[in-house]
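[job 0412] stage=fold_complex status=start
inputs:
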Amino acid sequence: MIWGVLQFPGSCDERDALHACSLLGEARLVWHEERDLGGVDAVVVPGGFSYGDYLRAGAIARFSPAMEAVAELAAAGAPVLGICNGFQVLCEAGLLPGALLLNESMRFLCRQLDLIAEGASVELSSPEGHQLDRSSAEVLSIPAKHGEGRYWAPDEVLDALEANGQVAYRYAPGQNPNGSARDIAGVRNEVGNVVGLMPHPEHAVDPLTGSTDGLRVFEAVAAAGAPA
Amino acid sequence: MSVGTAKHRELGLTDSEFALIVEQMGREPNVVELAMFSLLWSEHCAYKHSRKLLKQLPTEGERVVMGPGENAGAVAVGNGYAVAFKVESHNHPSAVEPFQGAATGVGGILRDVFAIGARPIAILDSLRFGELDSVRSRHLLDGAVRGIGHYGNSIGVPNVGGEIYFEEPYEHNCLVNAMCLGLAKTEDMVRAAAAGIGNTVVLMGATTGRDGIGGASVLASAELGEGDEAKRPTVQIGDPFEESKVLECCLELLEKGLLVSLQDLGAAGLTSSAGEMAAAGGVGIDIDVARVPLREADMEPFEIMVSESQERMLAVVEPARVPEVLAVCEKWQTGSAEIGVVTDTGQVRILRGEEVVGDMPVAALVDGCPLYDLEPAEPEGWIYGNRATLAPGTSSEDELLALLAAPSIASKRWAFEQYDSVVGSRTVRRPESADAAVLQLPESGNAIAVSIDGNGRRVACDPHAGTIEAVLECAQNLACVGAEPLGLTNCLNFGNPEKPGTAWQLDRSVAALAEACTALGVPVVGGNVSLYNEGPEGPIYPTPVVGMVGELPDPAQVAGSSFVAAGDAIALIGPFSPTFAGSELAKQRGALDKGLPRPDIGAVAAACATVRDAVRAGRLASVHDVSDGGLACALAECSIGAGLGCRVDVQHLRDRGCSPEEALFGEGSGGFLVSGERAVLEELGAVYLGEVGGGTIEIAAGDRSLVVGLGTAESAWRSLDI
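[job 0412] stage=fold_complex status=done
writing structure:
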C-alpha cells in the first residue's frame, strides 16, 4: 500500500506521519498544491497549523487542490486518516461529521492518554454507547496535543454516530482532556474508510518515545478502506 | 543633515561615545546613521560591558564545529552530523508584554539555529518570575507560558524541558530565556559572513513594519521603570506561521546549495544583520531601503533599517542563483526581495533608490564601540531582602510539605503540558521523567541529552560558588541519563553593570563559569548577555543560565528519575555535603545570607563519571540529581513519580558534618539519589540509605525524623496551578 501524507504550509507532524506510514508500506509527501495525488492508495492529512490556522482550524486547508483530490479518493472508498489538524480539515471539508472547538480549559494541552478503540460493528454501539462495558475493547496509549480538540456535534448527530458505529475512538473514562462530547476522540464516516482523531498515532510508533499503539490506528484505517 | 547632541542621549549613547562616532566617521552622523550606531553600539549588540570578561571562557574542543560569533554554536555528534544550540534572553520585552515577548523570544532563537542550516529539533526555556502571590507575576507567568507554547507548538518544534523559579527580585524584571537545538549535516552548514563582491543580498520572510523600533537600545539596554506601558509598541509581534514557512524555505535553499551565507534579523533588524555579515566577511554592503517590502508605506529609511519585525532572514546569493532562490521562496509563499549587493568598499551604504541616505565604515559601526572595564566592588552583606513564610519550630513533616509546594520546587506540569513535547519523534524522555531531556538521533545512531539550569538565589549568595553549581547541576543532569557533555551555552542575566555591586557579581560569575567549564573540559560554543535587568527595587538575582548538551550512545539504556520497584535499595552517590546556606528552606525561613561552600568540581566530575557509566551499563533502576529542597525533596519526587513510598535513614550524612536538618533539606552540588540492587549500588561506592516501598515517605534523621503519606506529599507537589 502506498500512503500519501499531505503537506500544507504550517504542517507540523507530516514527517512523523510519513515515518509512521513507512513502517507499514511505501509513503511519500504530497504538496498541498497537487491536484493529482500521484497514485497513492491511502492518505493521511497530518497535524499542525495549516496556513497558520489563524482563521479557524482547517478552514483554509479544506480548499486546497490536494483536498479536492482527497475528497474524490475518499468517495472511491480509499482509506483516509485525519490526525489532529487533519481531523479538523476533514470536518471542515464535510468528509466527517461534527466540529472541533477550543478545549474546555482554553489552553493547549499535551498529554499521553488512553484511547478506547471502538469497532465499526453495530454490536459495540448501543443507545448507551460509551457506557458499554469495554473490558474486551482495545486500549491504546497515544499522546494528544492540541488547543482546539473539543469534539462537538448536535445531540441527534451524536446519537446517530453511536447508533451507526461511527465513534472510532473515545478517551478512557476520566481522561477526556478537552471536554469532547461523550468522550469522543475520533470518528469515522458512514462507510468507515474516512477516520479522524485528535490524538496522534504517528507519535506512538516507537517504544523508545512512549508506545507503539499508534500503529494499530494506521492498520485499522488501512483495513477499513479499499485501496484506491 | 546633522543632528543635535540631545538625540544621541535619547538613543542611549553617551557623549563620549557620540564623540568617538564623529571621530571615526570624520563628520557628524545623520539621522539614519545615528540610529544605526545607537543600536549596534548598545549593550545588547556590542557587549561593551561584558566582552572583555567573556574572553576567559574556553571555546575550543575537538567536537566543536562552530563556536561563538556565529548565529549558534555547534558540536559534532557523529556520522557527519552536528547539533547546533544557543540560549538567548527576551527579558525586557516579556516584562512589558509577556505573551508576545516570550513568543518572539522563541522565534528569535529558532532563527538563530536554522540560520546556520540546522533543523530545529528542541526548545527549552528558563523562566524567572516574582513570587506567585503577586498578581503581576501570575500575569507574566501565564502570558509567557502561553506565548512560548503558541510559538513552539505552531511551528512543530518540541519543547522538551526547562525550569521556572519564583523569587521576589524578579518581580519587576522577569527573565525569559529560550534555548533551541538543531540538527544539521555538517557539510550543509553555513556561516553568517557575507562574501563574493557583486553578490546579491536577498531579504526573505515577513514584511518590514514599525514594530520593535528601537527595541535594542530603548528596551534591552536600559533599566525598566515607570512608564513601561508606553514601551509596548516597541515589543515585536510574532507570526509562527510565517516563521514555519521561512524555516522550511531556508532549509530547502541550503540543501540545494543556493546560498553563500545566511543571517537572521534579530535585535536591531537589518542594521545588525547587514553590518555583522559585512564585518564577518571583511566586505561592504549596499542596502536599498526602497526595495524592502514594507507593511506601512510611509516608513522612513531609519525606521526600515532599525525595524525589528520578526520572521525575516538575510541571505547572500550569487546573481546567477537568484531566480532559483526566488522560486523556492515563492513555493513556500514567503516574501523575497533583492535589496542590496556585496561591495568591496568596506562601507555599509544605505540607499533610497539613487539617493545615499547613510554611509558608514563597517569597522566603526560593528567593531568601533568602546569596550568598558567593569569597576567591581563587593557589596557588604546580603543586599536582597528576606521574607519568612515558615514559622520557627515547624515540624519536619510540614517543612517537607512546604518545600514540595514551593512553586520553584513543585511539579511544573501546569506549564509543560501547554507545550508539544513529542513532535519530531525524537523525545525519549519527556519533562519531569528524567533529569535531562533525551532526544534520539537516528541520523547518527545515538542520542543527545540537554539540560538548562541556573539558580539565581544561590548565585546571589555567592556569585562564584553559585555559578559553578549551575554548571555542575547541568553536568549532573546529563550524567543521570548517561550523557557525556559536548558543549555549553549560557545566558548571563544580570543587573546594571555600571553599578559596582552588579559588576562584582558579573565578574565573579564569569570567572566561575570559565573555571568550571575548563575543569570539566566543556567548551562554551555560544551565548548571550542580558544586562540592566533591574526594577525600581533594585537588581534581579544574578542569573547565569547554563544550557549543556551531551551525547549518549544508546537511548534505550536511559534510566528514569522515579523509583521503579518496591524492595529496590536506595543509595547516594557523590560528594554531597549539604548545608542550610542559600537553600529553599533558608529562603522560607527568611534567613538568606551571603556565602556558600565552595563546590569540589573534581569530586563532582568523578561522581558524574561513575553515574554515567552505571547508567550506560544499565545498572541503575533510577537516578535523580539532588537539588532544590535537598535530599528529602529528591526522595519525595522519586517516590511520587513511582507511586511507591520509601524508608531511608540519612544519618550517614552526619559523618559529613551535616546536621539532621541539613541532611534532610540542605542543598549543595554532587548528590545523586539512585535505586537498584543493593550489591550493585555498593559496588559503585554508593552510600546505602534504605529501601523503596510502602505508602509513606519515611526518613530517619535523628530528632528531625519524618513520616509523610505519599498522597499528602503528592498533593503538595502537584499544587502549582495558575
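[job 0412] summary: Residues 121-136 of chain A have pLDDT under 50 and may be disordered.
[job 0412] exit 0
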